Amino acid sequence: MSFRKFRSSNAFVTLVVCVAIYTDLLLSNLIVPILPYALSERVGLPQEDIQKWNSILLALYGASQMVGSLIFGWIGDRIPSRQTPFVVGLLALGATTALFAGGNTLPTFVIARILQGLSGAVTFTLGSTLLFDVVGQEGIGRATGYTGMSVSLGILTGPAVGGVLYEYGGYVHVFIPAFVLIAVDIILRLTVICGKRIPSQPSLKESIKSGGSSTETEALLGGPSVKAARFPILVMLASPRFLVAILSLFTINSFSNGFDGVMPVYVYQTLGISPSQIAVLFLVLCVPSLFSPISGTLKDRYGAKWPAVGGLVLMIPSLILLRLIVASVTAPYTKLAALLFSFGSAVTIAQPPLITEITSAVQEIEQARPGIFGPFGAIAQAYGLLNCAFAAGSMVGPLYAGFIKEWLGWSAMSLIMGIMSSIMLVFVFLVTGGSAFWRGHAISALDGCRRAGEP
After folding, report:
1. d(C-alpha 408, C-alpha 390), whole Å
2. Residues 353, 300 contacting (CB under 8 angstroms)
3. pLDDT of 209
4. Confidence of residue 200 (pLDDT cuts 50, 70, 90)
5. How far apart are CA 23 and CA 128, in angstroms?
6. pLDDT confidence of residue 446
7. Above 70 in pLDDT, residue 196?
8. What CA–CA distance (Å, rounded) separates 36 from 45?
9. CB-CB contact of 80 with 377 (8 Å)
10. Selection from 353, 116, 167, 141 nearest residue 245 by Cα
11. What is the pLDDT of residue 246?
12. Which pTM value belongs to this model?
């Protein structure tokens, strides 16, 4: 294989996207453990304001990522090459890292955190879309497994690296590995070769303008020609298959992030364990995700439905049994770790196939109504919505989990999560993988959305 062919190979593109995702998440989490100290020592905020601004800065990342995902998804579906904005996003990441490293004012930190969220939106949305363009639907399951592994590694190593370097080297030393990773990431993103996409056959309107008939256009498209939808996102959300996948991923991510906000306080107050023991629990929760490529491979071989169902079947008892973790139970720490490992395994099994359902649903819509998403399709916008769902779950999860825990208690929180998983299981079982029944309803809904969007 020549070097040029290697630069455009499935393996190299997957590596580039995984490194990009890992770099982005490591850098966004690098600042988390040292942010309170930076606000106090560098910005000079009084102690009573640190908690407020620490929370605001963390929330700004999620909010800007949500908005940026929709914007960059829209852009990604309207340009021939997705590689250019993918590289530009890295420049934003470099800028935000420089602002955090040299900044000593609150507005600088606010701008840096917003840019960090926008950079994450570019990396996840366009990086995932680039990967899909190269590996295709038949290989996206395994590729999604590798990106999921990169996410977990970034989340795990970011706070650890940031905390250790701050304690033993000081504030500026925290960002040395960040700039090294950015340099490596720049080289990789500039090295990879991703060809420009070729527009699909012209829409009915364009064909008539150029002298073709509607019958000729229908023959070219292989089905009834339709005008491109004005609001592709609404068209996608009208598909039961797409909607169930998005809501399931939002719910699962809200569970995972809900534990971040609730578990440390609960186990400290109930079991009296040390911070290092709490850290081990989070490690146990994340370790199964390192095996995400196996789940992705299962999807590529057996389809999305049964791996997703299997993951949810495991998730339900894992969540419900958490209500039994109280101080009076025998070996509560060991049992809690076992249940968290089981929950993490359930997420690892269910998440990759549900992510691939996003692109499968979009392709199903395009096959039913060719041209509805325009000449370049809507894959980037689909991944933009997916990233929005993840970001929303990250923001909402700690809020509702904390509210339920404070209002009804730990046992009620785990039971409610288990019930939510059971409801999710029913819809995933009925809809995931596509069926003639739901496909017919989806087509009717698509036609209704299209007519509603016509001027």
Report:
1. 26
2. no
3. 41
4. low
5. 15
6. 56
7. no
8. 10
9. no
10. 353
11. 96
12. 0.83
Sorting pLDDT into bands at 50, 70 and 90, what band is 451?
Answer: low
- Tally the residues of the chain: 455
Q: Residue 122 and residue 73: Cα distance in Å, rounded?
A: 8
pLDDT tens profile 179-194? 999 999 999 988 988 7
Residue 216: predicted pLDDT: 40
Between residues 280 and 340, the one the model is more confident about: 340
Report pLDDT for 218: 43
What is the Cα–Cα distance from 359 to 112, expressed in whole angstroms? Answer: 32
Secondary structure of the chain as H, E, C letters: CCHHHHHCCHHHHHHHHHHHHHHHHHHHHHCCCCHHHHHHHCCCCCHHHHHHHHHHHHHHHHHHHHHHHHHHHHHHCCCCCCHHHHHHHHHHHHHHHHHHHHCCCHHHHHHHHHHHHHHHHHHHHHHHHHHHHHHCCCCHHHHHHHHHHHHHHHHHHHHHHHHHHHHHHCCHHHHHHHHHHHHHHHHHHHHCCCCCCCCCCCCHHHHHHCCCCHHHHHHHHCCCCCCCCCCHHHHHHCCHHHHHHHHHHHHHHHHHHHHHHHHHHHHHHHHCCCHHHHHHHHHHHHHHHHHHHHHHHHHHHHCCHHHHHHHHHHHHHHHHHHHHCCCCCCCHHHHHHHHHHHHHHHHHHHHHHHHHHHHHHHHHHHHHCCCCCCCCCCHHHHHHHHHHHHHHHHHHHHHHHHHHHHHHCHHHHHHHHHHHHHHHHHHHHHHCCCCHHHHHHHHHHHHHHHHHHCC
When pLDDT is cut at 50, 70 and 90, the band that residue 56 belongs to is confident
Cβ burial 219-253 (10 Å sphere, 16+ → b, else e): eebeeebbebbeebbebbbbbbbbbbbbbbbbbbb
pLDDT greater than 70 at residue 203: no
Token pair belonging to 170: 């000081």
CA angle 194, 195, 197 (to 5 degrees): 120
178/281 Cα distance (integer angstroms): 26
